[in-house]
Amino acid sequence: MTDQQQSARRSSKSADEIADAYADVADKLARWRQLDGLFAGRYRRRQFEHANGRVLDVACGTGRNFRYVSSSSEVVGIDISTEMLAHARSELDRLELDGTIHRMDAQALDFPDDSFDTVISSFSTCTFPDPIAALHEMERVCTPDGEILLLEHSRSDAAPLAWLQDWRAESHYEKNGCRLNHEPLATVEQAGIPVGNASTAFFGLVTTIEATPR
């Protein structure tokens, strides 16, 4: 782990601080829906189009993943930010999907064990104050034969880009509550959750992970 990564981990924000950070940008992120579709849509579709059954979207934000989940699924979205959830509710209505949203801390999900057939999350483990705890909660609420599907940004495998991420990591986290240079696969492995498949794309900046509950 680099000095910059260690510094970002030491200065971890609280869940309330993360909520405040995203309250300030919720409207802007909602307006960027088409831009997100252009750049991240292909990855969201590949990772989440086969999510089925009762689907939990952890840290759902403004609901960017909803359009890629099967229309036959029941979608439940949770996020720490009330402002983000207002846009997520509008997205569910716009797509006419069967679903609900709840304000909830990903590190302490208010659902019984084995509640969901599929748990999905995108670009989120970089923001959780304790990503290991959040991953364990995803595992807890997922059925034993279900799937945990993650789409994350990650530290690049191209040295110049990785250097830039490391250089900006501390200031980026302070402003946005996002660990710019985190390594999601290492985090999932540290959580002890079995990984069935993982891949990277776009100079290693995008990581997809398919995991299963123990």
TrEMBL record:
<dbReference type="InterPro" id="IPR050508">
    <property type="entry name" value="Methyltransf_Superfamily"/>
</dbReference>
<feature type="domain" description="Methyltransferase type 11">
    <location>
        <begin position="56"/>
        <end position="149"/>
    </location>
</feature>
<keyword id="KW-0808">Transferase</keyword>
<dbReference type="InterPro" id="IPR029063">
    <property type="entry name" value="SAM-dependent_MTases_sf"/>
</dbReference>
<keyword id="KW-0489">Methyltransferase</keyword>
<protein>
    <submittedName>
        <fullName>Class I SAM-dependent methyltransferase</fullName>
    </submittedName>
</protein>
<dbReference type="GO" id="GO:0032259">
    <property type="term" value="P:methylation"/>
</dbReference>
<dbReference type="GO" id="GO:0008757">
    <property type="term" value="F:S-adenosylmethionine-dependent methyltransferase activity"/>
</dbReference>
<dbReference type="InterPro" id="IPR013216">
    <property type="entry name" value="Methyltransf_11"/>
</dbReference>
<dbReference type="Pfam" id="PF08241">
    <property type="entry name" value="Methyltransf_11"/>
</dbReference>
